[in-house]
């Protein structure tokens, strides 16, 4: 431990801060649909997710090894590169959280690593083959596979169960949602917590504390697991609202199939060492489940903003990290300036979020079809429906069977300007 310098300590702390932001940024992956369908109360949902994220952090280190020895070449990379990469990832995470966009924390980290490494040592510092096979291909395949699986599973579920909407059926699917949400949380811990483990391990290698190719030490595994669990417990309510109601209106059957499909994809990728985005996998599954129900629609205006954020994540985080690395290369004053910019940027984003605060009450109250609430306040503004959504909602019949107060369901208007006399697909709240 004689090589454990002040800069290395700063990098480890910054990595844990990123892990914390990853936790509250990605809470929606596991719990948005569970909360939106009423299967669990918000606070209980995020508490359960936090515990299972912590457990999942101990199940595997395959993804951590991909990060620590696969994305960039360890030789010739200085510790300051890792710090600059984390700055880019944290700022992008906070910005997309402010906007309520479920972008990928994983890709923010990858973009930061790539941008900082290229600025430090050129393109030779990046392993292009690993990026293509273990980052880019899974980024495209994961949401497609999860979405198609969720759509087919949803159609099969409704075909088997018909249009039954009785109390026992709803309770059964809600119980299944709780189990599948726990599985997603466990999968998230095995995948995302390991990314921080990999970054800290990479920093320890560059600082001379560990030998190249070493596995994460136990203290790294524990600290990364605790950090992501704490972030998860606080809950990213802005993104939960977008995932739970902004994309589509989900019934318990759809929530169950979406979460099960996403968890299967994430766990399989973790065992293979694929460092995919859990956010993209879960978002794809939610959209697939929305399309799988007869009369269900996806709000493509929200989905389009998500797709744009996904495409911008790698390059945007990379550019910020490259600028941060340019500063840190100037010496001690550059490192101090970069840290100051990180603190100032994070503080500015937090202050901006206080203008329109969103908490657990915004995702449990009665929701408008566009993802807002029917209450008052800035967060209650509904999102305008897209053209595609309006067209589909206009011609799609609602699911058969009346919606009764006994079942706890209330009819909602379609997302695109339906009149009070025109029924739209019912949504379970």
TrEMBL record:
Annotated transmembrane regions: 6-24, 44-61, 81-101, 108-129, 135-158, 196-214, 220-240, 307-327, 333-352
Keywords, alphabetical: Membrane, Phosphate transport, Transmembrane, Transmembrane helix, Transport
Compartment(s): Membrane
Principal location class: membrane
Sequence ranges of Low complexity compositional bias: 364-383
Keyword Cell inner membrane: no
Membrane topology value: Multi-pass membrane protein
Keyword hit for Transferase: no
Coiled-coil annotated residue ranges, if any: none
Region: Disordered, residue numbers: 359-383, 396-429
Family, per entry: Belongs to the inorganic phosphate transporter (PiT) (TC 2.A.20) family.
Stated name of the protein: Phosphate transporter
Organism: Streptomyces lichenis
């Amino acid at each position: 431990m004689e090589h454990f310098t002040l800069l290395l300590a700063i990098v480890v702390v910054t990595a844990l801060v990123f892990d914390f932001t990853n936790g509250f940024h990605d809470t929606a992956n596991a719990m948005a649909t569970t909360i939106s369908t009423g299967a669990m109360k918000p606070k209980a949902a995020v508490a359960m997710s936090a515990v299972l994220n912590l457990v999942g952090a101990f199940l595997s280190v395959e993804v951590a090894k991909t990060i620590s020895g696969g994305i960039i070449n360890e030789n010739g990379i200085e510790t300051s590169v890792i710090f600059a990469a984390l700055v880019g990832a944290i700022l992008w995470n906070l910005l997309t959280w402010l906007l309520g966009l479920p972008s990928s924390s994983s890709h923010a980290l990858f973009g930061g690593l790539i941008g900082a490494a290229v600025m430090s040592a050129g393109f030779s510092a990046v392993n292009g083959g690993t990026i293509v096979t273990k980052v880019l291909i899974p980024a495209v395949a994961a949401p497609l596979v999860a979405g198609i699986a969720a759509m087919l599973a949803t159609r099969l579920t409704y075909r088997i169960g018909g249009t039954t909407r009785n109390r026992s059926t709803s309770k059964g699917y809600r119980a299944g949602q709780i189990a599948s949400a726990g599985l997603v949380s466990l999968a998230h811990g095995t995948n995302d917590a390991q990314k921080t483990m990999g970054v800290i391990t990479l920093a320890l290698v560059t600082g001379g504390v560990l030998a190249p190719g070493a596995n994460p030490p136990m203290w790294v595994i524990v600290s990364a697991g605790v950090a992501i669990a704490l972030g998860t417990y606080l809950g990213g309510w802005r993104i939960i609202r977008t995932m739970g109601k902004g994309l589509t209106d989900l019934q318990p059957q759809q929530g169950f199939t979406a979460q099960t499909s996403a968890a299967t994809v994430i766990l399989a990728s973790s065992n293979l060492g694929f460092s995919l985005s859990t956010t993209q996998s879960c978002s794809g599954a939610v959209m697939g489940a929305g399309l799988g129900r007869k009369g269900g629609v996806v709000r493509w205006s929200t989905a389009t903003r998500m797709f744009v954020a996904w495409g911008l994540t790698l390059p945007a985080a990379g550019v910020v990290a490259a600028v941060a690395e340019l500063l840190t290369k100037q010496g001690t004053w550059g490192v101090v300036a970069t840290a100051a910019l990180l603190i100032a940027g994070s503080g500015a984003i937090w202050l901006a979020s206080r203008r329109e605060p969103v908490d657990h009450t915004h995702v449990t109250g009665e929701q408008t079809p566009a993802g807002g609430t029917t209450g008052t306040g800035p967060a209650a503004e509904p999102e305008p429906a897209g053209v595609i959504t309006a067209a589909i909602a206009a011609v799609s019949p609602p699911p058969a069977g009346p919606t009764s107060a006994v079942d706890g369901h209330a009819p909602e208007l379609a997302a695109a300007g339906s009149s009070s006399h025109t029924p739209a697909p019912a949504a379970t709240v």
